[in-house]
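Reply to dn_fold:

You asked what the input looked like. This is it:
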Amino acid sequence: MEDIFRFADEWGPLKIVHIHRPAAGLKAVVAIDNIACGPAVGGVRMAPDVSAEEAFRLARAMSLKNAAAGLPHGGGKAVIYGDPKMPLGNKERLVRAFASAIADLRDYVPGPDMGTDELAMGWIKDEIGRAVGLPREVGGIPLDEIGATGFGLVAAIDVARDRIGLELRGARVVVQGFGSVGKHAARLLTERGAVLVAASDSQGALVDQDGLDVAALIELKAAGGSLRDHPRGRKLEREAVIDVPCDIWIPAARPDVIDAANVDRLRARLVAQGANIPCTAEAERALAAAGVLAIPDFIGNAGGVICAATEYQGGTQALAFAAIDEKIRANMRLVMDEIERSKVLPRAAAVALAERRIRAAMRTRRWGTKER
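and this is what came back:
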C-alpha cells in the first residue's frame, strides 16, 4: 500500500478508502480530502495506471478548486483501475460495482472525469442516489457535453491574456489532450479568432501552422478516430506537441506532463492548465522565471465543478454558465492582482485565496473536517 500519508497536513486527507472486490474485478481508491465547506465533490477517473497518490493529489486540487470557486463543497476524487475503452457492458458492471462499494461514503459526491462520462454517472446515481454531471434525460447538466470546463478555461485565459497584453485574434494555440476539455477550449478560442496550430491525443500529435479545422477534429474524435487520422497536417509522436511554438499552450490530459525535464522545451507566453496538476512545482517555477504566465489549474479549470454544483443545487444550464463566467473571471482577477502586488508565483496566490476560504469554513465546524 502506498504511503500517501506523507502528504497529510492540517487540511486532510479526511480518509482514503481502498476498494477491492475480486468477484467484480474491481480495484479502486476514494480520497476524501476536506469537507469543511460541505460534502466533497470530485470526479471518478478510470485508467489502468491510476494510483492512491494520484487520487489524493487530485482530491486536494478539488478542495482548493471548490473553495476558490466559493462552492459549498469540499474536495474528493476516486480512481478505478481499468481500461476505459472496455466493452460497454463490462464497464457498466464495473462502475455499478464501484457505486455499490461507495454507498456509505455519503460525504463524497461522484462526478465524471477522465475515462468516465455522463452515462457512467447515471449508473452511479441509479445505484446509490447521488452523482453529478448526469445525462439530461435524468435531470442533469451534462458538463462534458456542453464544455463547461473548457468554457471556464477560456474565461480565465481572457482575463490573463488581457493582463499580459496578448491579443486573442491570431493567437496561436496548442492543445495537449484533445478530449472533453481541450476540444471545447479549442472551439471557443478559434471562434474568437485564435488559431489552433497543434493538438494531441493518446495516439499522437497533429501540427499545421496554417491552422487546424477544429470542427473536423471534433467530428473525427466523436466517430472514434484519432487526430492522426486527419488528412491534413504533420503527424508526430504525442510528446512532440510540447515543442510546437505558440502563444497559448493548454495541457488538458494527465498530471505531471510538464516537469523539470521538459519544461525548457515549451515555447509559449501563457500556459492555461485545463487538466488537474498537469505541471509540477518545479516546472511552474521555471515557467515563471522564463516570463511565462501559468494559470493555476484549480482556478482555470473550475468550470466543470461549478456546473456540477449548480446541478446539485437544482440550477439550470444557463445559471451554470453564468456562474462559471462570473466566478472564474473574478478569481483570475484576484490571482493576477496578488501576483502583481506581492510578486508571488501564480499558484501561491491561488492557494492563499483557497486556503483563506477553507480556514474560514473550518471555523464554523466543531472540527474542521469532521464527518457529519
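The chain is about 40% helix and 20% strand.
Hope that clears it up.
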